[in-house]
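Review form for a predicted model. The reviewer records the input and the model, then writes brief findings.
Reviewer: anonymous (R2)
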Amino acid sequence: MKKGGTQIEKDVFDTFKNEIKNFISGDVYLQGTRPHNSTKEDCVIGYLTGINKDIQEGKVNINFYVPKINIGTQKNVKNIARILEIEEFMSQLVRRITDEYFFIQEQTINSFEENEFQNLVNAVLKYKRFSND
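Model under review:
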């Protein structure tokens, strides 16, 4: 049976949630459910795109929000040490194979400035979904 994007997003969330939750200080959310004003170290998993063939293929997004740190200046700065830890964690995590899914890293894991309080570490995963039907 073919699955829709929301079900695939939930499957990926269920696959990675516990391991991510044990690694970060915040929580893990599906796309669109993270509290708007959160300043915690959170992770958001979201469906990007997919195609229905005999083997479903597509992309999912995993975003880690990393609070900036105060180093005694007027402006908080990027927490480079923590971002490096998250990038390494993600490199290991994305090699997961389940009975139903195969994941590979689509592009280099990268960090961006999200706003004045946090940076975003982004990983795009390519998935292949194997169905018994």
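Findings: DSSP finds two helices and six strands in the chain.
Further findings: The chain has a mean pLDDT of 91.
Recommendation: see findings above.
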